[in-house]
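Database export, one record per block. Field names are fixed; values are copied verbatim from the stored entry.
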Amino acid sequence: MINRGAIKNICLFTLIWILLNEKLNGFVVLSGIFFSVISLYFTDKVLLGKSYSQLFHIPFTTILAYLIYLIFQIFKSGLTAIPKVIKGDCRVKIVDYHTPLNSQLAISLLANAITLTPGTITIEKKGNILSILCFDDEEITDDPELTTTFSKYEQILGSLKS
């Protein structure tokens, strides 16, 4: 029997499928539902051995806040990264960032947000330490901007449990 969490995930994954296809018609919706069901079944039975929706429960408000802030940061960072790339001013450095998050799910979502944001890439995760490849410029030498951006993500993801 399909539980309520699975139905929510199917709806969420289908919505993401529709957004990625950039159109709304019967075929896109049905294929989204089909691939969502197949993906969740495969994940539950083969990869995890347990229910995805029970292992990785994320409240809707947390997902919404995370996505809104992520999209904002992608645009903001893109606007600062584009001139650096065009000018060829792409010196980089590796920063070790210690996150106060304890949940492995929350740390993984933080690492994904860092990688999705232009100008930063998470290259390694060891416990709650993230190694981040980022632009090396005078503005973030001591990483105050990085810390401020990450702390906002940490506020959003802080409620997630392992």
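Remark 1: Residues 10 and 39 are 9 Å apart (CA to CA).
Remark 2: The chain has six helices and three strands.
End of record.
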